[in-house]
Specification:
The structure holds two protein chains of two kinds. Helix content of chain A is 36%, strand content 16%. By secondary structure, chain A is α/β, with parallel strands linked by helices. In chain A, α2 (37-46) packs across α5 (136-149). Chain B is built from 14 helices and eight strands. The chains are: A alpha/beta, B alpha+beta.
Chain lengths: 159, 363
């Protein structure tokens, strides 16, 4: 990364933070009513064949340590408050990725009585990864695109 | 005098161990668990009710999405039930392909479980290796059906795709590789001294307890109960390809590992026999739009145990009632029976040992 030392120290610190965040996002995964299909594909993405960890993404247990919330499935009545709570526990800045058709639109479960709706009816979403379930390649692509969108202006491009 | 109060450790619904939401309350005395409380239902979507608004064919796709791990199980169980109601029988070739996909799915599910269970025990190397090898079977399934997870192999009255020479060769190659790996994993889980200390004698469910709480599937077979729907009431092509039931008597976590790994070897044998002996013929028969009035029950052996469907038709284009009972629900009781007396640190492994599937279980 390149730093402009004529900037104030706050700017420099911000640039450093962004650099660190993009290179090592910690993710947390929550299933708010999914069929498991997306969950196992997310897990498959982290295992040797696809190895999402090479982008610095690490699956993390606690929402308080996480930068990215990976959501799967439609939101059920039971898990709506839980999803909100997890989102609120995450420190700012936080990003949400909705994985799978159900997370985006409710998918196959649109009219089920216990389904409230899709993820962005409950919490704001930054990236959508479609598919039923999305292939691991698609999940990698979605994560990389999310990280790219966090890049600052080209002149302070992270190398 | 101080009142004796229980200290309760709540875990879930979001927790680092399992990928699905379930809430557990462990009452502990120091490090020792004294009682367990399980709260389910976080992924209840109301699929059973939703089936009543869809026609017979549409339900196939909805029911397949009860569970992403055993999607073929649900579609197959539903198809068998509806076909029994409509008095339609799928052609022999379709029956064998159905069983073939069911066995391939069992292989993928057991590999998945092996990885997750090892991960709960802190043995991440085994997790990574087994998931790497699981990709072999995912490739086979994708080549065969076109999707990695929801295969959508069934239609009412048959199957959607055929198995050609090229796919046969791919299946055999995949199975040969996995068989070699399975022997290796068998050696690992039965000889690795660190791992054995986490599994041997942990979470023991005696045969009497297993009968009492009514566990099914690999859980029952690890506790010495030879219970397998593929043998007790053969469906699809299992009467042509008989299954040797794998039974262990120890009932502890190690026995559950051994049973599932030996079942993998049994599945490889079945897969080889099935691809070598595919009967010629059609893949589908005509299925009426409306299904005759009546009730049907169908049972099949999912990777986790017996899946049970009750289907009622009122003679229309839609079912009147579809009731699903999935294997995980039966096995949850065993946690309450086995967990007390163990260390809190053993809980993730005991939980993973039953191969819980919350999305099946809550529907």
């Amino acid at each position: 990364m390149s730093l402009n030392l004529t900037e104030t120290w706050e700017h420099t610190l911000d640039a450093l933070r962004t650099w660190a965040r993009i290179n090592s996002p910690w993710a947390i995964h929550y299933n708010s009513g999914s069929c498991n299909g997306c969950d196992i594909e997310i897990l498959a993405t982290l295992t040797p064949r696809y190895d999402l960890e090479r982008f610095g993404v690490k699956l993390q247990g606690s929402p308080r340590h996480a930068d990215v919330l990976i959501c799967t499935g439609p939101v059920t009545l039971q898990s709506r408050d839980r999803l909100k709570r997890i989102y609120e526990q995450m420190p700012e800045p936080k990003f949400v990725v909705a994985v799978g058709a159900c997370a985006i639109s409710g998918g196959a479960f649109q009219v089920c009585y216990n389904v409230v709706g899709h993820i962005d009816e409950v919490i704001p979403v930054n990236a959508y990864i479609p598919g039923c379930p999305p292939r691991p390649e698609a999940i990698i692509d979605g994560m990389v695109k999310l990280l790219q969108s966090l890049q600052p202006q080209p002149e302070v491009m992270v190398s | 005098m101080l009142a004796l109060e229980k200290f309760i450790v709540p875990i879930g619904p979001q927790h680092p161990a399992l990928k699905e939401p379930g809430h557990f309350e462990f009452a502990v005395d120091g490090e020792t668990v004294t009682s367990v409380n399980v709260r389910l239902g976080y992924v209840h979507r109301g699929i059973e009710k939703a089936t009543e608004d869809r026609n017979w064919a549409q339900n196939l796709y909805l029911l397949e999405r009860i569970c992403g791990i055993c999607s073929h199980t649900h579609a197959l169980c539903y198809s068998l039930g509806v076909e029994a109601l409509a008095e339609v029988t799928a052609p022999p070739r379709a029956q064998v392909i159905r069983s073939l996909v069911a066995e391939l799915e069992r292989v993928h599910s057991h590999f998945l479980w092996l990885g997750v269970a090892a991960h709960e025990g802190g043995f991440d190397t085994l997790f990574m290796y087994s998931w790497r090898d699981r990709e072999t079977i995912m490739d086979v399934l994708e080549g065969l059906t076109g999707n990695r997870v929801n295969y959508s192999a069934n239609v009412l009255g048959g199957v959607k795709f055929d198995v050609d020479e090229k796919q046969r060769a791919a299946i055999q190659r995949g199975v040969d590789y996995l068989e070699e790996r399975t022997h290796h994993y068998y050696k690992v889980v039965t000889t690795d001294s660190t791992f054995i200390r986490r599994t041997r004698g942990v979470g023991t469910l005696t045969t009497a307890q297993a009968e009492h709480v009514g566990v099914i599937g690999p859980m029952a077979r690890a506790s010495g109960i030879a219970r397998d729907v593929r043998v007790d009431a053969p469906y699809a092509a299992y009467n042509l390809f008989p299954v040797n039931v794998v039974v262990e008597t120890a009932g502890d976590l190690e026995a559950r590992f051994v049973v599932r790994l030996k079942e993998l070897l049994e599945s490889y044998r079945l897969i080889r026999e099935m691809v070598d002996n595919l009967p010629p013929g059609d893949l589908t028969v005509r299925m009426p739009r409306k299904v005759k009035e009546g009730e049907a029950i169908s049972r099949i052996e999912a990777p986790r145990g017996e899946a049970f469907y009750f289907i009622k038709s009122n003679g229309g284009e839609k079912p009147e009632r579809v009731k699903v009972r999935t294997p995980s629900l039966c096995n949850f009781m065993s946690i309450i029976a086995t967990a007390p007396g163990h260390q809190l640190a053993d809980m993730p492994m005991i939980l993973a040992g039953i191969d819980p599937c919350f999305s099946c279980n809550d529907r």
